[in-house]
Specification:
By secondary structure, the protein is mainly beta. The protein has a domain of 128 residues: Neuraminidase, CATH 2.120.10. It contains 4 helices and 43 strands. A 5-stranded antiparallel beta sheet has the order 13-14-15-16-17, with no helix packed on it. A hairpin with a 2-residue loop joins strand 26 and strand 27. The radius of gyration is 27 Å and the shape is globular. It starts with a helix and ends with a strand.
Length: 568
């Protein structure tokens, strides 16, 4: 017998002795244990698909297209595609369980829900939503809807589609503005106004650009000023298929009258050139003031210019005839959704984007390869290390609490779904509508103090082919999907690292105090990822231990690891 084999036998014998000396509870998974009375196994609750699982898993090919959050911070509405027989769902427990509410009527032309609006965030039962063809209103929490904006300008036919809408309370009644665009070249949309206080109210053309609807601009977004009752300002993002313009009107005045039109240029080329966006969004800081003399005339405009170009632009108003100031304040990537809070000088901005790393002119624009959410605070933007792993992220800000804002995100694409953040978008965990199923559990790890903290980690795989890392801290009553194979995460040096296939989860033996967890990737020279905050964020450790596959890993503490590889 050679020395190497003898050494292996000694190690195996030593391990066997140690295992025999360990108490039985150290070996058995506390999550699933035999009942001493019956010697039977109890079934442990794990994520399930569809209605039986409260819509945690919804199968590949499903997506969330819009979100609306009530002021109570726990009532959330989500618009979906490909999930059950409904297009609108409601949660009353911060996104863990959902009730199906409403299906888009068959006569709506196969449209999808593009926006949800709760004009009074203290009233979670009054909700407006828009498809690409109509705007609907419910006063019973989404059980029943009536059309309030019926095919504005002919939307739903001849290439005309609704792009956005806004609702605001005004003297006890609600007012609506709706924008449309025509997808055909040299055909245009408009801005329409609806007053619910008038019994026989019709949609009124607001003649954006001081011209009849359909004659001048496609309108990508429209919104009331947050102070509309005082200033009667309406803001619109428009394009003539060559330029992208932010235009505004006060009362019955002309568009671009009191505040000149702001032209948004492509600043990635020198000199800047005009660009025509294909979609747009509007958001305002909490201290917005339409009086340019107060220096709080700040608007945020999110654009998708097609391809890989777009971004969020800050519009700072100045007195006409001078043009407002326009500044790019994000990566120049396509923007899918936008929300904002805080003051203009110190904003909190949530931007749902679709990212791809690319080279634009002389600049290298690095971004997430699978989409996610950017969180901007105090004017500084950074992608969170644990953004929802999918494309086309729709975002919504919830209530503020001691750790920051609650942030909700809905995504589409492989392993998309509904995600929530309790730290202003710094970290996310998905809780529902996850676009996958569960066909295999590949690993389970139980907290060393499970009886006290109820924590279990689990790795699963479904038909998408991607592994999902789950965590429960409630003895299996609720599960969070915290990482997904293929997700882009920020590495230890600040660069993006794609999470490869991973096989194993290991707790620190001092988890009760250091809350550290490790996951190990598959294959040769794998990354070892460590979280020191019970899975909220993971960072890769520099693997200098082996270039082989890792067969076993035993933490001594959250900094010292023993690694066994495939080379022995």
């Amino acid at each position: 017998m050679d020395h190497q084999n003898l050494a292996k036998r000694i190690i195996y014998i030593w391990l066997a002795v140690v295992l025999l000396l360990l108490p039985s509870t150290a070996l058995s998974p506390l999550a699933i244990q035999a009942s001493p009375e019956t010697d039977a196994w109890n079934k442990y609750p794990i994520p399930k698909e569809g209605k039986a699982g409260d819509w945690v898993l919804t199968g590949p090919g499903t997506s969330v297209t819009a979100l609306g959050v009530a002021g109570d911070g726990t009532t959330i509405y989500a618009a979906t595609e490909g999930i059950g027989n409904h297009n609108l769902y409601k949660s009353d427990d911060d996104g863990y369980t959902w009730t199906p509410l409403w299906e888009i009527p068959a006569g709506d032309g196969g449209s999808m829900i593009i926006a949800i609006n709760l004009p009074d965030r203290e009233d979670s039962d009054t909700i407006y939503l828009s498809t690409e063809n109509n705007v609907y209103k419910s006063t019973d929490g989404g059980e029943d809807f009536d059309i309030v904006g019926n095919n504005p300008g002919g939307a739903g036919a001849d290439g005309l589609k609704i792009t956005s809408f806004d609702v605001i309370e005004h003297h006890g009644d609600n007012l609506l503005v709706i924008s449309t665009r025509d997808v055909d070249n040299l055909e245009y949309g408009g801005v329409y106004f609806y007053d619910e206080s008038e019994t026989f109210s019709n949609l009124t053309d607001l003649r954006v650009g001081n011209s009849d609807a359909g004659s001048m601009y496609d309108v990508l977004a429209v919104a009331f000023s947050p102070n509309f009752s005082d200033d009667e300002q309406i803001v619109a993002v428009v394009t003539d298929e060559l330029n992208t313009i932010v235009t505004t009107r006060f009362g019955v005045g002309n568009w671009g009258g009191e505040v000149a039109d702001a032209y948004i240029m492509n600043v990635l080329v020198d000199p800047p050139l005009p660009m025509a966006a294909t979609s747009g969004l509007l958001a305002f800081p909490a201290d917005y003031d339409s009086d340019v003399d107060e220096e709080q005339y700040v608007q945020y405009v999110g654009l998708d210019v097609g391809g890989l170009t777009g971004g969020v632009y800050m519009i700072t108003g100045v007195e006409a005839p001078n043009a407002p100031l326009v500044d790019l304040v994000s990566l120049p990537a396509p923007v899918y959704s936008l929300d904002a809070a805080g003051n203009a000088i110190d904003p909190v901005m949530l931007i749902g984007e679709e990212y791809e790393p690319t080279v634009i002119g002389p600049m290298v624009v690095a971004g997430l390869t699978t989409g996610g959410v950017f969180s901007f605070m105090g004017g500084i933007g950074s992608p969170p290390p644990s953004a929802p792993p999918a494309t086309n992220a729709c975002v919504a800000l919830g209530a503020f609490h001691g750790l920051g804002y609650y942030v909700y995100a809905g995504t589409s694409g492989t392993n998309g779904g509904f995600a929530r953040s309790t730290d202003s978008g710094a970290t996310f965990a998905r809780t529902a509508f996850i676009s996958d199923n569960l066909t295999e559990i590949t690993d389970i790890a139980v907290s060393p103090v499970y009886d006290q903290d109820g924590t279990i980690y689990m790795i699963t795989q479904g038909d998408s082919g991607n592994k999902i890392l789950w965590r429960t801290t409630s003895h299996g009553q609720t599960w969070d999907a915290i990482m997904t194979q293929g997700q882009s995460l920020i590495g230890s040096q600040g660069s993006f690292t794609t999470l490869a296939d991973f096989d194993n989860i290991v707790f620190s033996p001092r988890f009760e105090t250091d809350t550290s967890v490790f996951i190990i990737e598959s294959g040769s020279a794998p990354n070892i990822w460590r979280s020191t905050d019970n899975g909220s964020r993971f960072l890769p450790l520099r693997n200098k231990a082996t270039t082989e596959e890792i067969d076993s890993l035993v933490p001594v503490n959250n900094k010292k690891l023993l690694v066994g590889d495939s080379a022995g």
